[in-house]
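Entry 14. Structure prediction run on the chain below.
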Amino acid sequence: MNISQKSRNYNSRIFTSFFLMTFLAAAFALFSVTPKAFGEQSVQFLPPNSFSDLAEKASPSVVNIRTEKIMKDGGRVYRHFFKGPDSGPFKDFFDKNFRQPNQETKKQQSLGSGFIIDKSGYIVTNNHVIADSDSIFVILQNDEEFEAKIIGRDPKTDIALIKIEPKIDLPVLKLGNSDQLKIGQWVVAIGNPFGLEHTVTAGIVSAKGRVIGSGPYDNFIQTDASINPGNSGGPLLNINGEVIGINTAIIQRAQGIGFAIPASMASRIIEQLKEDGSVSRGWLGVSVQNITKELAEYYGLSKSHGVLITDSFKDNPAYIAGIRANDILTEVNGKSLETGRDLINIIANAKPGSKVDIKGLREGKEITFKVTIVKRNDSQFVSSVNGLNTLGMKLNDLTVDYARKLGFNSSNGAVVREIASDSAAFKKGLRKGDVILEVNHIKIGSVENFNQVINQIEKGNRISMVIYKPNVGLRVIHLNK
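Output returned:
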């Protein structure tokens, strides 16, 4: 090999090495870029060098919330052992020797977190942080303390809005768009765990749309950023410092799992609380079931998505618009429906009086509906997801074959097909295969009849059921709605 060939090979190796290093540097820069550089849809693949700038900017907007509840007369134990007579010759003796001011009342205190969303003093927190409290105190990062008033609460999503009256404008946090959040993105939680001052923890988004059984509108962001007691009500931030969730729950038995209310859902609720002090939700008037693999095959669907209508309540919005049992709903206002919970959340967030466009299938043919949403009245309707009603049961009409098997002369009744183990009915002894024959002395002919009877019973009132247990006989159970 001559000198010129060696020179060319050497130069070629240098060029290849330079090209490779340039490519790696570009790739590193590309994957390290923040989501802001590519728009909200992008993902940051590498952790930032430090969360300190984010924490420094966000922390002044995060507050500590202290609540007090007054327990009268020191509670039942004090009254039983120490409270003397209210009149008579011994009253002065007891007042002088036993009754002290601090025994008359006892303050029960609790701690939580919150964050400022408006410079005039509006603060978001969890409902469970301030519920049943007599006094609410907000402590800012500079230790300045204010007494707060409740603007509105929504127990169903565990969101509350309170307000203080500051003398100066307060630093605020911006609510971001959690709908664009990606699994694997970095997030930061700030709060006051155990009553300590501002504490910052970091992690990633582990999952979205989590259902943990806390209510009908479960739609949590799951994260491995530590969310400890006292963090409740604090913000979950993306790396741009926007609030993408409200820290609200932890699973005591698990390590490194926390949950947050999505900001996109919370923003609509906060807006209503600010304007009206309460939340109005939309109502469609249907009972639904998720599309299983078997149902998809039966109805000739390409994949298991959509929502099967098991019942459309007469004179309700869906029924008036033409939606009937066995219809399959696939879209609402252009949003694809994967499960019944998707439908419930979309309709719940729709403003009463507004119109929604719904697409679906009936006997394989595409159908469309324009439905006028009405205000949901929780005490009036029995809702269901996957056929599981608010009493925690999934029911079928009593068939002639099953009635004969039980030795019945009639097929009137509703059969328990599934029952939640944590439901009041289960705890009272109701089980799969049991037949509900009467509710509050009204004979039950079908599942529809059962729903009609239950709908007329106000929340909190007593329900008495006559049931038939196979191989046991008739039983009566009592529970509250």
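The chain has 14 helices and 28 strands.
Filed with the rest of this week's runs.
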